[in-house]
Amino acid sequence: MILAAVLMAGCAVRQDAPLSDEDSARAARANTDIATHHLRNGALGPALEKIERALDQNPELIDAHLVAAEVRARLDEPAAAESHFDKALSLDGDNGPALNNYAAFLCGRGHVRRALDLWDMAAANPLYSRRVMALSNAALCLSDAGRGVEAASYWRRALSLRPEYPPALRGMTEWSLAQDRVDAAQHWFSRYTAVAEETPSLLWLGVRVARAADDADRHGRFARRLRERYPASEQAARLTE
């Protein structure tokens, strides 16, 4: 799952004297940004230190609670992570990133129904700029749970918002293949390749679609391109299977 904390680079702030409310808010934002940097680099200890300082400086900063939730989740402290998600939503129950991130957390722990409720809430908020991502995340969650028909309905909803959204087009291609709907798979894959960057994963999907369509020429072209451009990839190794 894609997590949706939107954060910017910041600077450390020393607290040598009591800070005004404005300075505390600024310091909390800066420490949240630094914690995010550490989190992206896998440095959980420094990330935890900075995000706890941020929350001391501003306990109502939603982004800080989202980062804290992610840190706690990676530290295998689900109760603490859930507490931060709950706090974020208590501050703003319509906050798109909070709904999306919490849903991803719940899906990862097998709470699919609760996750879908939150993703639906995020997708229903016209002010949330990443509604299409929330719908696509819901589809991935359902697909991983073996609920392909429901997943396809969410991918279609995502495409109704953004017709050329690559993750949803890929999802529809994969689902069509799984259903042995070869013509549909070719249709979705054609749309997918028109908007997505070439990757080993894309080329491998092309190999599979061509194989299902019994199209030896296209199969050969995709396989050759995969071998030549990405010889060390896992997908290239699978060509011999």
Automatic annotation (TrEMBL):
<dbReference type="InterPro" id="IPR052384">
    <property type="entry name" value="TMTC_O-mannosyltransferase"/>
</dbReference>
<protein>
    <submittedName>
        <fullName>Type IV pilus biogenesis/stability protein PilW</fullName>
    </submittedName>
</protein>
<dbReference type="InterPro" id="IPR011990">
    <property type="entry name" value="TPR-like_helical_dom_sf"/>
</dbReference>
<dbReference type="InterPro" id="IPR013360">
    <property type="entry name" value="Pilus_4_PilW"/>
</dbReference>
<dbReference type="InterPro" id="IPR019734">
    <property type="entry name" value="TPR_rpt"/>
</dbReference>
